[in-house]
Amino acid sequence: MNREKDVIVSIRGLVFSRGQRRIFDGVDMDIRRGSVTAIMGPSGTGKTTLLKLIGGQLRPQAGTILVDGKEVPRLSRGQLYQLRKRMGMLFQTGALLTDLNVFENVAFPLREHTRLPESMIRTLVLMKLEAVGLRGARDLMPAQLSGGMARRVALARAIALDPMMILYDEPFTGQDPISMGVLIKLIKTLNEALGLTSIVVSHDVQETASISDYIYVISEGKVVGQGTPAELEETDSPWVRQFLNGLPDGPVPFHYQAPDYEKDLLEC
Amino acid sequence: MLGVLQRLGHTTLSGFAKLGRANVFMLQVLSGSLEIVIRPRLLIQQMYVVGVLSILLIGLSGFFVGMVLGLQGYNVLSDFGAEESLGVMIAASLVRELGPVVTALLFSGRAGSALTAEIGLMKTTEQLSGMEMMAVDPLRRVIAPRFYAGFFSMPLLAALFSFIGIYGGYFVGVGLLGVDEGSFWSQMQAAIDFKEDIVNGVIKSLVFGVIVTWIAVFEGYDATPTSEGVSRATTRSVVYSAFAVLGSDFVLTALMFGD
């Protein structure tokens, strides 16, 4: 297959700093169309920042980010908004509009971007809510939803405009096992049923690996490991091994950098 | 010593940077103005929240301020045997000064703080970011309607304040203290000039409306996205509004009545 067409997001030599801190230092990534790609890494490695860079909310200092053949940092505001209509993003908190009920939240992008008649909007919203299993919750307000339900509503909203790609920001954080299972199933089935491309940012290794076609592990601004879940199992990088298996000690030491313990205690 | 200078420089620079952000923000909001013409419902909703829900506060305050003016004015004027001029005094102080100024201060406490907190919380809970990712410009969809709602509500509320205040003064002066009703109204009618008093008062309230709502929506939008950040932004919104209103009131008064 034509490789150019096969890749939906292509990142080359990405450099991004915030203040003095360099968050990305030469990151290369390719995300294949139709796949579920996981981006993993310890907290604070800028995984969310990466999604914001792909979505064009932040601009890198150097490097290129191609999304569907368009160079995101170079797009004008109007072009960027056109592109975003074809991307959905699921925020960690759900980011539902708190003054609208579930139905209106899902209808929001439809009302903003289309001139569909009310009956059509109703049908579409109910279809999207049915897909996430929350058709019965349409009249609830966001404050009445549990964390997992809020994320499912946000997911219904993200697919309202039938995007080509969805970015998931830490979809599993703080979920109980059942709603985690529901979200895992939804990400996988929606990706297949709607022909989406999914990028899942997460540090829940097992859950994410179980649905991913390809995994990137980033740490300290660089890609430190990549491959299919099976390939990563066999990795010889001790760091990646520690991360994937959640070992308390290894290349990332258990102890934060400190002076010698004995000396520290006896001092004074 | 060097530390003090450094801090001074830092504070000054970040102050100017913020001022710059506030101006760019305002230009972006103004360039999104068309939205409220296309979808007036957004504006009407906000006018209800910002304006209509403030009516009780503004009306009651106006009535009390008017009553106090009636009492105090009567005490002073009766020393000179001029209690018939009570109406003029009350109306002039309300229309020229107290109406716009007190309304703006109350408005910033009632509606401005609410706007700041609401927008700040929307930012904290990533609602604004979420809108951006849905290709909806929050400046148009969220900020512009709120700004214009404040802008249109302020003069109306100030007019209501003065109107009710005059009746508060009438109630005390004519009703309780026995000032002649005919001269109360006729002197007021003769002495209050449409252009000099009323138009200037309306201009003031328009300016205050811009200042208070601008500060309120900007502080919310610029808030640090944490609960502490939002609480600070809300405080700042009210404090800055009060300073800005009182300061610009002096400048406006000097320009309008200074010669």
SSE inventory with pairings:
The complex is a heterodimer of chains A (268) and B (259).
Chain A: H1 3-6, E1 7-18, E2 21-32, E3 36-40, H2 47-54, E4 62-67, E5 70-71, H3 77-84, E6 87-90, H4 102-113, H5 118-131, H6 147-158, E7 165-169, H7 177-193, E8 197-202, H8 205-211, E9 214-219, E10 222-227, H9 229-233, H10 238-245, H11 261-266
Parallel strand pairs in A: 3-8, 3-9, 6-7, 7-8
Antiparallel strand pairs in A: 1-2, 1-4, 4-5, 9-10
Helix pairs in contact in A: 4-5, 4-6, 5-6, 7-8
Chain B: H1 2-31, H2 34-38, H3 40-50, H4 55-79, H5 86-124, H6 127-133, H7 138-176, H8 181-191, H9 194-221, H10 227-257
> N-to-C SSE series of chain A?
HEEEHEEHEHHHEHEHEEHHH
> What would you call the shape of chain B?
elongated
Ranges of chain A where pLDDT stays below 50 over 5 or more residues in a row are none
Q: What's the count of strands of chain A?
A: 10
Report low-confidence residues of chain B grouped into runs of 5 or more: none
Question: What's the average pLDDT of chain A?
Answer: 86
Q: How would you sum up the global shape of chain A? A: globular
Count of runs of 4 or more consecutive helical residues of chain B: 10
Query: What about the largest sheet of chain A?
Result: 6 strands, mixed
Beta-strand content estimate of chain A: 15-25%
Count of separate DSSP helical elements of chain A: 11
Q: Return Rg of chain A in Å.
A: 20 Å
SS-derived structural category of chain A? alpha/beta
Q: What value does the average pLDDT of chain B take?
A: 92
Largest interface: A-B, 22 and 15 residues
- Percent helix of chain A, as a range, is 25-40%
Distance between the termini of chain A: 69 Å
End-to-end separation of chain B: 46 Å
Oligomerization category of the chains in this entry: heterodimer
Order of helix and strand elements from N to C terminus of chain B: HHHHHHHHHH
